[in-house]
Design a protein that fits this description.
Helix content: 25-40%
Oligomer: single chain
Distance between the termini: 47 Å
CATH architecture of the largest domain: Roll
Structural class: alpha+beta
Order of helices and strands: EEHEEEHHHH
CATH superfamily of the largest domain: Beta-grasp domain
Largest sheet: 5 strands, mixed
Mean pLDDT: 94
Low-confidence stretches: none
Number of helices: 5
CATH topology of the largest domain: Ubiquitin-like (UB roll)
Radius of gyration: 15 Å
Length: 158
């Protein structure tokens, strides 16, 4: 079947089998930032923005994304530069091995679009579905808090 969607701002048409997941389709199309982790929606490594909301792409059938807008980490640049969330992750040292980073950043972008001034507890709850094996999440929480300030036009808080 043909699946039509906008991926990172570019309209695309892709072939998908009836049981293909969005994760499988995106990786087959060369978007390797969408990581295959658990395959059951527990680790969050495969998160993408589907119509602006973070979803685990391993749980979404490709056919359900027909006509949708999908954003991966490759599609969030800010006029050719890093998105404020990416920059905050970099500045805060929140990037360790990098495996969870794309999904964590995308999850944070979705979360901050709905909650621009979160508490640390709210941030921790928002990223609870993104497993990081390298850290205790303190640097990610600090990065998201800093990104929220940057997006609101505040000062750098890292």
């Amino acid at each position: 079947m043909k699946i039509r969607m906008t991926v990172n701002g570019t309209p695309r048409e892709m072939d998908a089998a009836p049981g293909d997941t969005l994760l499988e389709l995106l990786r087959r199309e060369g978007l390797k930032s969408v990581k295959k982790g658990c395959g059951t929606g527990d680790c969050g490594a495969c998160a993408v923005l589907l119509n602006g909301r973070a979803v685990n792409s391993c749980l979404v059938l490709a056919a359900k994304a027909d006509g949708a807008s999908v954003t991966t980490i490759e599609g969030i640049s800010d006029n050719g530069g890093l998105h404020p969330v990416q920059q905050a992750f970099l500045d805060s040292g929140a990037i360790q091995c990098g495996y969870c980073t794309p999904s964590m950043v995308l999850t944070a972008i979705d979360f901050l679009s709905r909650n621009p001034d979160p508490t640390d507890d709210q941030i921790r709850a928002a990223i609870a579905g993104n497993l990081c094996r390298c850290t205790g999440y303190d640097k990610q929480v600090a990065a998201i808090r800093d990104a929220a300030s940057r997006i609101r036009g505040g000062t750098h808080e890292a």
